[in-house]
Amino acid sequence: MEEDDGRYWLIFSELEGQEALGESGGSVVSVSEAALSELQVLLDDGDRDGVELWDRLVARNLPSSSIVRWIAAGMDSPVSRASLLASRVYLSALLSASAPIYTLFNPLAFLSLLRSLRRSLKIQPGGSESFPAAESSRETNHRKNASRKRGGGGASTSHRFGGRDTVDQDMSIEELLLQVLEFLELVLDKVRLDTVPDGVKSLVETMAGILKNPSAPHHRLSDSCFRILYGLVSRPQHGDQSQAAIEVMRVLVPMVFLPLKSPTRSAVLGFLTHQLAGMARENGEIRKTLLYLPRYLAMKAPDKSEPRASAVDAIVEILRIMESEDQVAFVEYVNKMAQGKAQLRFLAVDLILSLLTTLPNPLGVDSPDNYCADGTCTWWGIRCLQALFQRCSDVSAVIRARALTNLAHAIGSLSENINNHPLLQSFITSRYEKFNNLLKKRCLDEKAAVRKATLLLVTKYTLMTGQPIDEIILKTIGRACSDPLISIRKAAASALSEAYRKFKDSRVIKEWLHAVPPLIMDNETSIQEECENLFLELVLNWISAVGNAKIICDPPNLESVYSQDVLALLRGTCDFEVAPYVKKICASLGKKRKLKNSIATSLQNIITISESIWTKNSMRIEKWTAPPGAWFILSEISPFVSEAINWKFLHHHWELLDQACSMDMNGSVDKLEPTSVMWAGDRVSLLQTISNVSRELPSKPAAELGHNLLNRIQNFNMHFTEVDAHVKALTTLCKRKATNNHEGDALVLKWVGQVLFKALETLEYYIGEVSRDKDDGNLRTPLGNKKKGTTASPSLSQAVVAVFTIGSMVLVCPSADLKGAIPKLHAIIIPPDTDQKRKELTGLTVAMKEIAPSLYIQSWVTMGKICLVDDKLAKRYIPLFVQELERTESAALRNNIMISMTDFCVRYTALVDCYIPNITNSLRDPCEIVRRQTFILLSRLVQRDYVKWKGVLFRRFLLTLVDESEKIRHLADHLFGSIIKVKAPLLAYNSFIEAIFVLNDCRSHSGHCESHGNSPTSSQLFSIRGSDEKSRAQRMRIYVSLLKQMAPEQLLATSAKLCAEILAAVPDGLLNIDDAAGQSVLQDALRILACKEMRLQHTRGGEPAEAEEEAAADGGAGAAQAAKGRAVTQASKKNLIQHAVPIFIELKRLLESKNSPLTGSLMECLCVLLKDYKSEIEDILVADRQLQKELVYDMHKYDAARAKSRLAGADGAAGERVASAVADAAARATVRSVLKEAKRDAPTPPLSAMSLPKVRSAAAGGGATGADRPRELLESLRKRQSFDSDDDNN
């Protein structure tokens, strides 16, 4: 009892002191923690339940409100622990049985309680967080000892609500806060918050603050907060339940936008979908509130991608708990959102995909009745697909890309249910033309993300539709396989392969073969692997399955056994453009042991069945050819599946082909029938196959084969491709059948010497025949002047083949003795008037270039092969090759010499490096084949680092971007867009300014005169000089291609260099614009600065988060790219203000002084550059007010002209009148704005202060005479436009 008296004395002494201060007008006394702890003990006494406290208050004439004021002062304490202790005391007082609730509970005290809760969430002044994980044991023991000394902490009573000690000095703030929240939950059962103004709102916001606090634990605290919120909504005594529900949802919505894995978000979403949803089923008003929650979330969804994804997920989760009619109503709302602002359209596109893939039965196929009672269609999914289809043509590229992607995913997801297929096919086929037109347009979209999304849609579209893919779309996808972006190349290959699987017709097969196999040369390893896997699946495995299938008895023709598609596939693999890639793919698959024996078996079956059907139909065997491509593929896979190839099969077809070849012995090498050409190709592939499996050959057949090959080589009557194949096959056969390498080399050297002797005899015979004919004065008609129907003589054709054979043997046997061959070849390729000594060596006195061009060309080719194995000879002859390349008129010879020069570049890099400018001249060769061959060969050398991008090489390659040949332009786009961009990312930036001067052939700039080289002819050849529209368009296309390779910071630096090195060079006198080339350079620079590729992508006035979405479309580095873009944009603005604008002002003054026609181009460029800064033009052009006014006027004038043209084109004559009125109104408004700007700078002086009063008085009839007035002044005044200045004064 004495202990309680002490507690009461401590409490009442502070209360009485507070009352005394209140009566004297003083401030509220501070509340001690000791007094609060003692009061808590009294309130927690379970036996008396606080009754004695209130009785003693009455006995001391202290009102109950005094203790409320005292506790409220404690709750307002800045110390979190003291504030929470006071809050707990206040709630305990309200929970005591005999407490005067209506006196204790008042708005001020309740708001102090809420402030105490919010204060506990703040960081402590010392820097520690509000909720320490644990207190140190030393501090805990210190508090316990202090409690014992005070004498009040030893007694412990049972806590009514948690069984805790009443003495809680060692409790953390987290525990105190949790206890306060538990008491608050109980208090809400006894009080009414409708009497407290904004009480519900304040309490809800406080609970939300606790939930959002990152330092607060998320288990018991969050559960207590949710129970309090649930109690607010569920109990009517706190006011309107629907309003309470609205307040709760309003404060919880921001937490719904947290990341998907956030525990706070999960807890909030669970509260909305379970507790509030359960309450909504019993309360109609709360149900209406919950129904509008998804719409509210949609309107409040942020622009950024992650919060928007969280919003979409939350909306779908809430929709799951709703009735089907409520879901359909929200779907209709989403469809309307898809027609709204950009932010809402973007969100609607994401929502539609989630609705289609999450909600049940979107197409109504599982419902017995597809219509509601009011007759509306329940196929809400179709309407969603229609909305997505419309957004695929949105003006915003980000929305277009997302809509295309989501439409593809939606079709793929819905197609998993086979019952949806009829409706999906109906949806696509009903708008088949629109779909095709959409895909055609989007495949060529300027945004990479849109192109990639379109390819994904094509893949899904192909799976669902049963109609063949459009030809234009097919070719567009094929071109996308060479897109600069890796992701688009992958998507294009996937889309084209899906079309291949679905429609195995000749169109798709041909496009696939020309688009996918070339990816084996891609720089990206993953694309190479994907290319190999696709070729194995779609080509080799298909051939294996078809070739090993069972055959019907006595088929009438080959098409009845194998479909046209299989035959088209085989024929396409041996196409001259596809064959090199097929070879590389087969070699790579073989090295990885992915080739199976069944593929070789199938190809042998196809060839055997083809021959069998031919012979059964009693046709001549010499007219038979195997299905094109069968022998070719077999030869490429034979090194890796040699055990699956039957020697009897090879021997039989060799004899068959050899027999057919003997029938063509008397024919010309250059004039073969189509069947003979096909036989020759098959013989080449057969020989390659035999050489690849030569280890498996028996000894006797191998010897017979070798003797046969040698005889055929010595006859010199085969086609060049056959000669190479025979030489390689015989070499391989000798080496593989020899017991050791030395023996094999000796065998090869022996037969090479024998064939070489025979070849020189054939060549000498022809040279002697030509010399005799000249001596007799009876030369044969030159090959180039032969009449139609004539053929070359047998000796000439044999001589040509003999020379070619020498070159082939040199490559396989470099040690062969060529002492007799080199002088004869030298005599053929060197004109007689330049080398008199050759008459004594060879007796040749005529120019073979005129008599036998084919022999002349082939001699250069063979000499090139000899130089490859003899470095001393190469040093002597390489200059001759360069000389002949420049002067010969034969396109075939130029092409062959170009091939030889590239081989020299690999073998003798240092020797050829000085001739690179001569070699690159072939890029402007009049023959397209030579240009294309030069481009391909030089590109390969550059990729392999045999040639560096330095000097004239890069500048001359630029001309290929505007070549007359579409194939060369396509190759150049791929080279600059994919290869150079990766291999030399700074090349376009470093060479850009120099390229402008070179393309214009401008030598009037003192700093760029050396860029053109020493040869005026070459500079003119590799320039596009001229001011005509075609030349400007070609130069601009080159500039744009280079700009597309640059990063944003490089574009900014290029803009600065253009201003400093070209624009500023004109006022400085470094660039002479009186010269036509100098004018073209300046005009090109202005056009480049104004083009859209040069302008950095701003977000000023753009779509929401567009820059972020476009950057994120290419990978995980999107955020960094977006931040980098914003930094570059700020730097661009700074560069424009500090550097570009002063240069433009100075240049404008100079051009105006010279009355230059380039003034208009300069003004147009400035209008474009300043278009994004209309509101800041006054600050930017502070140095030239006149230019500022002119620019404002010009920009409004151009806008008015565009409005006039649009309206005139839409409404004809009536539209023209309306457009004229609009334009005139815009012009008047512009003039008024300009005048207002002028007035803002300096007020208009009164008429009496005008500087020319005589002009006005003379116009009125007095003053000076007409002779005193300058005539030009009067004329200018007559021409001056009058403005309605009264409007300006309004």
UniProtKB/TrEMBL annotation:
Residues 125-164, 1099-1118, 1237-1271 are annotated as: Disordered. Residues 893-1036 form the Condensin complex subunit 1 C-terminal domain. It is found in: Nucleus. GO terms for cellular component: condensed chromosome, centromeric region; condensin complex; nucleus. One of its GO terms (biological process) is meiotic chromosome condensation. Keywords: Cell cycle, Cell division, DNA condensation, Membrane, Mitosis, Nucleus, Transmembrane, Transmembrane helix. It comes from the Eukaryota. SUPFAM superfamilies: ARM repeat. InterPro entries: ARM-like (IPR011989), ARM-type_fold (IPR016024), CND1/NCAPD3 (IPR026971), Cnd1_C (IPR032682). The chain crosses the membrane at residues 89-114. GO terms for molecular function: histone binding. PANTHER family: CONDENSIN (PTHR14222), CONDENSIN-2 COMPLEX SUBUNIT D3 (PTHR14222:SF1). This is Condensin complex subunit 1 C-terminal domain-containing protein.
